[in-house]
Amino acid sequence: MKRTVKVVMAQRILRANDQVAKENRERLASLLTLNLISSPGAGKTTLLEKTIVGLRGQVNIGVIEGDIYTTRDAERIAGQGADVVQVNTSGLCHLDANMIGRALNELDLQNLDLVVIENVGNLVCPAEFDLGEDFKVALLSVAEGGDKPAKYPLVFRQSQAVIINKIDLLPFSDFDLAAVTEEIKTINPELQFFVLSARTGEGMEAWLEWLRKKVRQKKQG
Fold first, then answer.
1. What is the layout of strands, in order, in the sheet containing 192-195?
2. Which residues contact 168 (CB under 8 A, 6 or more apart)?
């Protein structure tokens, strides 16, 4: 007997995701929400730890941690006193809006000013999925090399800010900061740039002040 092959189109999947993302965005209407995207090891969790410390007493932060397995990053965030929800994708290379919707049920949104979604370490899939965030933030580390923007332009095109992290390693690498910055600007000239080292704290204040400003603007409507 001849069997029918069913094809699920990617566009249908993305449309369904976008509907849930719209619902998430309505739930988060009074909160600033960021979707932080990078390769594995670029420093997302360290950046979040230092951000929580830097904004303590000024901005109440909730974090949704996306990982394929383990709760290690969530445990680090909890250790800084922030509310955190772990989402394990069990093999999926990205978070989607449904996962975020369920995670939001576990956060006390009324007592938060900022929600940061730390996406699964990946520069490809996470850029394609709207989660209901206000901004995507791309994070690139000096240790990765300078070829990533040209190889993975979508995440830089979709983001509103880019962080170049681990600048304390510049003397030990061939990372050309000026050339990489210019290449990213050709992909998205509207990006807000932050050049910093989350480990040493160099450049962190500009990032923290941007967050304070965006939180104020969101509250003012």
1. 83-88, 61-67, 114-118, 32-38, 135-141, 161-165, 192-195
2. 197, 199, 200, 202
Q: How far is CA 76 from CA 33, 113, 122, in A?
A: 20, 20, 20
- The amino acid that residue 90 corresponds to is S
201 neighbors 169 (Cβ within 8 angstroms): no
Q: Which of 4-8, 11-15, 120-124, 169-173 has the lowest mean pLDDT?
A: 4-8
Query: pTM for the full model?
Result: 0.92
Interval 27-69: pLDDT, tens:
999 999 999 999 999 999 999 999 999 999 999 999 999 999 9
Superfamily of domain 10-220, CATH level 4: P-loop containing nucleotide triphosphate hydrolases (3.40.50.300)
Residue ranges per structural domain of the chain:
10-220
Express each pLDDT in 153-186 by its tens digit. Answer: 999 999 999 999 999 999 999 999 999 999 999 9
Residue type, 61: I
Which stretches does DSSP call E strand in the chain?
Answer: 32-38, 61-67, 83-88, 114-118, 135-141, 161-165, 192-195
